[in-house]
Design a protein that fits this description.
Layout lengths: L11 E7 L6 E7 L5 H10 L8 E6 L5 E3 L6 H5 L7 E8 L12 H16 L7 H16 L4 H4 L15 H13 L6 H12 L10 E5 L2 E10 L3 E6 L2 E7 L3 E7 L2 E6 L19 H6 L10 E4 L3 H19 L9 E2 L12 E2 L7 H10 L30 E4 L2 E4 L2 H26 L3 H4 L2 E2 L5 E2 L5 E2 L17 H11 L14 E4 L2 E5 L17 H45 L4 H5 L1 H25 L4
Parallel strand pairs: 1-5
Antiparallel strand pairs: 1-2, 3-4, 3-5, 6-7, 7-8, 8-9, 10-11, 11-12, 13-14, 15-16, 17-18, 19-20, 20-21
C-alpha cells in the first residue's frame, strides 16, 4: 500500500522564459534537480542559436530587484526566490556584450544583439546624444520597414513606434528625415550591422546600470555598471568614474557595502566628484607623493546584502570574461568575511563555459552558418495626429483615438471639451516639469558627448470619457511585467498595479497608477513615490537595526564561550602549580566563581544523564 506524503513537492517545475521580444515566450517543464543551465540550453536550442556564451537568464526577487540566474546551481535553489515557485518566469537577455559585433558569426545572433540594443535605446540605458539617438532610431526603421514609401508610410509615421525614451515631435521629424535618406542604400541586415557598429562605439554600450548610494550623500542616486571596457559610474547624468579592467585592482563587498579599489595611477574623469574615497583628507593627500599614497577604495551602499553580493559577482564575471585566457584558469575568489578568522566570505565561480578569448579561437575553426529567422515587429503606440478639431469648420474630430463624423453642434461641444482637457493637460505638464528642469539639462562628458537622462512624466487623465485605446495587444498583466523589468531603480518596488497613462514625449503609451513617479534607469522603478519610499526606508532601518542586534548577541556569546573554554583549560591544567596557589587574586576567582560553577554543572549533568 502506498504512503501519501503531505506537502511533497513536485519533481518537475514549469518555467516560462520571455524572449527579447516581449510578445514571445518559451514554456517547458524541467526537473527541480537539474542545473539552471538546462533551461538556457533548451531555450537557445529552440531558437536555433549556436553562439550561446553571450546569453544569460534573469529573474526578479520579492523586492523586484533583477538578478542573473546562477546557471551552475539547481533549479530548486532559484525557485526559493519566487513567491509562487510552481511556475518560474525568467527573461532571456545578453549577459556579455561582445566588444566587436563582427565577432558574432551568425546573422541570427547579431539580430538578437540588435534587438537587445534596441531595448537599451528605448529604455534609456544606451545613453547617447540626440543626433546619435535619431540616427540609431532611423536604422531601426530601415531594418523593420525597409525603404521609405510615401504611399505606405505617409506623414508622422515615426510616431507610431516606440523608438526612444523621450520621443518628441522634433526628434521624430529628424528620424523620418534620416530614414528617407537611407532609401535604396542598405538592406535590413546592413542597417542592423551599421546600428551595431555605431552602438558599440558608445561608452554605454552594454551598460546595465545598478542603482547604489553614497553614504555621505544618501539622497543622490549613483548608477554603476560594467561593460567590456570596465566599470562605469554615473552620478546623476555625469560620468564620475570610468575604471578600465586593467586599472581595477580589487572588487569586494561587506554586508551592504560594495568596494572598488583602482590602481594608484587611476584618475577619475571628473575632478569635481569625490565619491566616498577612504583617504581621510584630500588636502593631506595632495602633499603626499603618488608612490607613497595608499590605494583609494571607492565605497557604495547597496539596498541589501543579497544585492551587494550579486553586484560583486556581476562585476567579477564581466572582468573574467573579457580579460582571462580561459574559463578553467579563472581564479576562485572570496569576499571579505563579516566575522574575521571564522569564515572566508562568499565565493565566486565563473558562470560561463568559455571566456571571450576562447570564443575567438573557436570562431576561427568553426564555419559560418546561415540560419533563417523571423524579425520581430516594432512595439507600437498611439500615433501623433494633426489636431483637426481645432479647426471649427472641419466636420471630423478625434474621440478615443478614432475619427468620427459629427454634426456642427456636436463638433462644437467636443471642441470645447477637448480644449478644456488640453489646457488642463498643459497646465499639469508645466507643473510636473518645473521642479525637474535641473534633471533634464544635458551634461557634457569629458570627450564632448552630450548625455541626457530625462525622467518619464505621469499625466493623469482629467476627462470623464474613456482613455485612449492602445494598439498593443497586451493584457494589463503583460504590460506591467514589461515595465517592471525595464524601467526604474532597484531601491524600491518596480511593478505597477493599476491602470493609468504615461506621457512619453507627446504620447500616452503605457498604463500605471495615478500620482506615481518613475525613474527611468536600469529596469528598476519608483512606484507611488512618497508612500512606498517612506515604507521601504522604515523597513530597511528596522531590518538593519535587528541585524546589528543579532550580530552583537552572536559575537558576545562567541566571546563568552571562548573565555569559558580558556578558564577551564587554565584552572584544570594549572591546579597543582605553586604560582597558581600563591596568587591571591586567582585563588579568590577559583574559590568564589570557578569551583561553584563547576560543581553546579557536574550536578546538573548527573541529574540530566544519570549513570547506569
Amino acid at each position: 500500500m502506498g504512503i501519501f506524503r503531505f506537502g511533497a513537492k513536485k519533481k518537475v517545475i514549469k518555467v516560462a522564459v520571455q524572449l527579447l521580444d516581449d510578445t514571445e515566450t518559451i514554456t517547458s517543464e524541467f526537473k527541480r534537480s537539474e542545473p539552471a543551465q538546462a533551461i538556457l540550453d533548451y531555450v537557445l536550442e529552440t531558437m536555433n542559436i549556436k553562439e550561446t556564451d553571450y546569453f544569460g537568464l534573469r529573474y526578479q526577487d520579492h523586492d523586484r530587484h533583477r538578478y542573473w540566474v546562477d546557471l551552475s546551481k539547481p533549479i530548486s535553489h532559484m525557485a526559493k526566490q519566487f513567491k509562487f515557485p510552481d511556475t518560474l518566469t525568467l527573461r532571456l537577455r545578453f549577459r556579455f556584450y561582445p566588444n566587436d559585433p563582427h565577432m558574432l558569426r551568425e546573422e541570427i545572433t547579431r539580430y538578437q544583439l540588435f534587438v537587445q540594443l534596441q531595448r537599451d535605446l528605448l529604455h534609456g540605458r544606451l545613453y547617447c546624444p540626440q543626433g546619435t539617438a535619431a540616427h540609431l532610431a532611423a536604422l531601426v526603421l530601415q531594418s523593420q520597414l525597409g525603404d521609405y514609401d510615401e504611399a505606405i508610410h505617409g506623414e508622422l509615421y515615426a510616431s507610431k513606434y516606440k523608438l526612444l525614451l523621450k520621443q518628441t515631435p522634433k526628434i521624430e521629424e529628424k528620424i523620418e528625415e534620416l530614414h528617407r535618406e537611407m532609401s535604396g542604400k542598405c538592406s535590413a541586415s546592413e542597417a542592423e550591422l551599421e546600428f551595431l557598429e555605431r552602438a558599440c562605439e558608445l561608452d554605454t554600450y552594454g551598460f546595465d546600470p545598478y542603482t547604489v548610494k553614497d553614504r555621505r550623500e544618501p539622497i543622490q542616486s549613483i548608477f554603476l555598471g560594467a561593460t567590456h571596457r570596465g566599470v562605469i559610474i554615473y552620478k546623476g547624468n555625469v560620468k564620475a568614474h570610468q575604471i578600465e579592467w586593467k586599472q581595477l585592482v580589487k572588487v569586494d563587498y561587506l554586508a551592504q557595502e560594495l568596494r572598488l579599489t583602482p590602481t594608484d595611477d587611476y584618475i577619475p574623469p571628473t575632478s569635481t566628484l569625490n565619491l566616498n574615497l577612504t583617504n581621510d583628507e584630500t588636502q593631506k593627500e595632495k602633499m603626499i607623493p603618488l608612490k607613497e599614497k595608499r590605494k583609494s577604495t571607492i565605497k557604495f551602499l547597496c539596498p541589501n546584502q543579497v544585492f551587494a553580493k550579486h553586484l560583486w559577482t556581476h562585476i567579477l564575471s564581466q572582468q573574467a570574461f573579457f580579460t582571462d585566457a580561459s574559463a578553467s584558469t579563472v581564479k576562485q575568489r572570496f569576499s571579505k568575511p563579516r566575522i574575521p578568522l571564522l569564515g572566508r566570505g562568499s565565493s565566486f565561480s565563473f558562470p560561463s563555459r568559455r571566456v571571450l578569448h576562447e570564443i575567438e579561437i573557436l570562431n576561427d575553426s568553426t564555419p559560418r552558418l546561415d540560419v533563417s529567422f523571423l524579425r520581430y515587429s516594432l512595439p507600437r503606440q498611439e500615433p501623433r495626429l494633426e489636431a483637426t478639431w481645432l479647426n471649427k469648420t472641419h466636420q471630423s474630430t478625434l474621440i478615443n483615438g478614432h475619427l468620427s463624423r459629427l454634426t456642427e453642434k456636436s463638433t462644437n461641444e467636443n471642441i470645447s471639451k477637448v480644449e478644456t482637457r488640453e489646457s488642463l493637460l498643459l497646465e499639469m505638464e508645466r507643473l510636473v516639469k518645473e521642479p525637474r528642469n535641473h534633471s533634464e539639462q544635458s551634461a557634457q562628458t569629458q570627450d564632448g558627448n552630450e548625455i541626457q537622462i530625462v525622467p518619464l512624466q505621469i499625466i493623469p487623465t482629467f476627462s470623464t470619457t474613456k482613455p485612449l485605446i492602445l494598439e498593443n495587444k497586451f493584457t494589463v498583466e503583460e504590460k506591467t511585467s514589461v515595465i517592471s523589468e525595464e524601467i526604474g531603480e532597484p531601491l524600491l518596488t518596480s511593478t505597477p498595479t493599476n491602470a493609468q497613462m504615461i506621457r512619453r514625449g507627446n504620447h500616452l503609451t503605457e498604463n500605471l497608477p495615478q500620482n506615481s513617479t518613475i525613474s527611468p534607469i536600469n529596469g528598476h522603478s519608483k512606484i507611488n513615490g512618497n508612500s512606498i519610499k517612506k515604507t521601504k526606508s522604515v523597513n530597511s532601518i528596522e531590518r538593519n537595526s535587528t541585524q546589528r542586534i543579532v550580530n552583537a548577541i552572536f559575537i558576545s556569546l562567541l566571546f563568552l564561550l571562548l573565555f569559558a573554554t580558556l578558564m577551564i583549560a587554565f584552572f584544570e591544567h594549572r591546579s597543582t602549580s605553586d604560582w597558581f596557589s600563591s596568587n591571591e587574586a586567582i585563588s579568590r576567582i577559583r574559590q568564589h566563581y570557578y569551583e561553584p560553577a563547576r560543581k553546579s554543572l557536574i550536578a546538573l549533568y548527573a541529574r540530566v544523564i544519570p549513570q547506569r
